Amino acid sequence: MILRDPAALTASFGWFVATGARDESPEMAGVSHFLEHMVFKGTASRSADAINRELDHLGAHSNAYTSEDRTVFYASVIPECQRRVVDLLTDLMQPSLEAEQFDLERQVILEEIAMYEDQPPYGAFERANELFFGTHPLATRVLGTAETVSNMTVEQMRQYHRQRYTRDNMIFAASGMVDVDDLIEQIEGMVQDWPATAQVRPAPAPAFLAGRDVIERELTHQHYAVMVWPGLDWHHADRYALKLLCSVLADHGSSRMFWALIDNGLAESVSLYPQYFGDCGCITGFLCCAPEDAPLVEDTFYQVLQGLAEKPIEHRELNLAKNRIESHLVMSDEYPSNRMFMLGNAWLERGEYLSLEAELQRLAAVQLDDIQRMAALLTKEPLVRVEVVEAQEAGGESGG
Amino acid sequence: MEQQILVHRLPGGLVLLGEPMPWLRTVACTFMLPAGTCCEPEGKEGLAGAVMEMIERGCGDLDSRAYMEVLDALGVETGSAVMTTHSTFGAVMRSDVLPEALHLLGQALCDPTLPADQVEDVRQICMQELRGLEDEPSHRCFTELKRFRFSHPYGRIAQGTREGIESIQHVDIVDFHRRHFSPGGTVLAVAGNFEWKRLCDLVEELFGGWRGEAQSELSPVQVNYGSRHVDFASSQTHLALAYDCPAYGDAEYYPSRAVVGVLSDGMSSRLFTEVREKRGLVYSVLATCYSIRDRGSVLCYAGTTANRAEETLEVLLQTIDSIAQGVSPGELERLKFRIKSSMVFEQESSRARSRQIANDWCVLGRVPTQREVLAEIDRLTCESVREHFLRYRPRAFSLVSVGSEPLELPVGADHT
Q1: Chain A residue with the nearest C-alpha to that of B333
Q2: Does residue A305 sit within a domain?
Q3: Residue range A134-176, pLDDT digits in tens
Q4: pLDDT, tens digit, 9 for 90 and up, residues B43-78
């Protein structure tokens, strides 16, 4: 996928692999993310040191990330570095996965897991996903757990790589000041020996379970809560209406939650956003406030949602949300790297790409009826709720 | 296209800077005011942030809701930041809405309502931010380092203190705004797609009558060495380390920046290689240059599980000192290329350029062009970087650890 912009000053390139936590068996939880790290640890023709040096030598802004359903590797460079960075990124997709590097990198992953354990909201999102998806593969934690990562073997990872990093399961996206002919010729030459077909992604019908949980921390200064509702899938025509509804309700601009909770200092932050997976989706809510205010804040939060029934969204609110989102899309489209992500992700998700103008048209076409139809999703109680609270005194615990 | 830095001074003292980037669709503006935490009165820590919050609660004929709705309708994204000597207030937008947006931002800055009945709300917001920070050990180690390392009032943090926030009254907000939100010492930096002559006319029209001198007498910045531990129930020990170096604006700044680059820029940098790649001690390790007035520091961070914290600190200190053995031609070449390349990336971001030129003006009193900076970078050699390091070789450190086990600097590394 190439979106060429001859006026751009830089060019961005990325491999989008349709593999992530949902493609892992429970005992292999975290392998996609671990593999994302191992990709930088050496190939048949490059050592780990050589890879790091080369990326820096290209002046590349590069990184990688893993989610429930994808692993993405990308780099932005000045145009004269195109051929070398494409060669490097593409070579990385066939890593040598050596045992010694595997054991060393395992320590880094365990540190990463420990780092996230220290960051608010302390695993509440991961726990909420586990409850919501139950035995469905989308419940898998992207980082895995200290236990699964400690027990994983390099041979398991090699097998996973052979099954998932295949020609039919990967997209190469480029944007900015790209030499198109050269790029196509180069990629074609490099990928022909790659395995052709991926193991089919298991896609059992998601059940969406209800659940409640409380995470106890020795000391927290804030109260955190995560809520999950069933949402829409990637292909749903109402995706734009849902995005606008979430913006009217909880964007950091003039939104209902903003005036009810943020402007008056009742809560530190509130958010509400849709997440899409191929065959299903959810809406995730988050709030953070002082522990003593938690009952009032949560009451207010649910009142705003339930208020959608008696106090429907007005034209003015919808138009403000449209302006906010439109302006944000136009501004972020200015960066070649953002265009590359839009391109790769859209193709991975829906097998289509919409130009910015077409996206804006779909956004503008949303009517009050559409948004009010989506409101029905959020006027129900959330299926899942996870909160983080300060643990009781040790004496109290042993007494109970 | 040759980079242009345009300057226009208004009679009241406001300096307008412009960097045209006509290939963009956006424009960004940054007001940089001499209104940082070091201007807060004693006992009112957190006031600068409270005032920044307050100025967006209505101005001119608009109440806070109407103000925010105009911003939303225009599609303007605003942001503010409180720093030590200065604070910034800015926005990025599509270039066609610049006149309306600047009119609104100007009103918020010069003629805010500062409604007395919202002071309690603002106190609550400040308190939320402070509590949020207290839950975040990787950020907290840096704020604690700032408090520990820098002399009063430079050790203050943007989030303030509980006592400071609780004591803020409406009169404090009005007074701080009157004293420190004045055109003398303030810069308005505009970068992106705009027409300079029309911008000058617009700014003259909006700010031509703005008067007032900056009021602050600043004491010299002193630093403190040694270790401080913050007990925190966390999986990792988070450590923040600082040592002295030339400040931004010093003739020796660029070699010093190069040392930090060799240590921390990119995946082949020494800290990433020694601490993460070879030993797997951390997920995150970094070093960065930080200046308060004429006092420069290198700040380093590493997060590691408690039982490996001592080893991590040891490797961190050894790696920093390894620059004394020299910098390889490959390291310097990669660094130069990275810096050159990042300047091209900056040319895609109106926001990044407006912040950079505002900061340059406030610190240096001028804005160096990218060509000038490249010439400084190109001049660096392996020998000059090593000699610089030997001249400034760090021997005294300030260390803060946040975690379940205290961490101490090795003997001799805690004082000059």
Answers
A1: A57
A2: yes
A3: 999 999 999 999 999 999 999 999 999 999 999 999 999 999 9
A4: 999 999 999 999 999 999 999 999 999 999 999 999
Residue numbers in B near A289 (CB within 8 A): 128
Residues A257 and A315 in one domain: yes
Same domain, A258 and A315: yes
C-alpha span between A111 and B284 (Å, rounded): 9
B contact test, residue of A103, A107, A251 with most B CBs within 10 A = A107
Chain B interface includes A49 (CB < 8 A): yes
CB contact under 8 A, B132 and A288: yes
CA distances from B243 to A390, A392, B414 (A): 36, 40, 10
Instruction: Test B267 with A9 for CB contact under 8 angstroms.
Output: no
ipTM rounded to 2 decimals = 0.93
Q: Are B256 and B299 in contact (CB under 8 A)?
A: no
A residues 88-147 closer than 8 Å to B (CB):
104-112, 114-115, 117-120
Tell me which DSSP letter residue B302 carries. Answer: E
Residues A167 and A228 in one domain: no
Is residue A121 located within the same domain as residue A54? yes
Structural domains in chain B? Answer: 6-207 (3.30.830.10), 226-403 (3.30.830.10)
- pLDDT tens for A310-344 read 999 999 999 999 999 999 999 999 999 999 999 99
Indicate whether A201 belongs to any domain: no
Q: Kindly determine whether residue B280 and residue A264, on different chains, have CB atoms separated by under 8 Å.
A: no
The shortest CB-CB distance from B131 to any of A48, A77, A222 is to: A222
Burial degree of A344 (CB within 10 A; 0-12, 13-18, 19+): buried
* A252 interface with B at CB cutoff 8 Å: no
Cite the DSSP H helix spans in A39-153. 48-57, 82-92, 99-117, 124-133, 146-151
Q: Which of B99, B32, B25, B100 is nearest to B349 (CA)?
A: B25
Please give the DSSP secondary-structure letter assigned to residue A391: P
A323 → closest Cβ in B73, B266, B349? B73
Domain holding A217, by residue range, is 211-399
Per-residue pLDDT at A397 exceeds 70: no
β-pairing, A384-390 with A211-217?
A: parallel
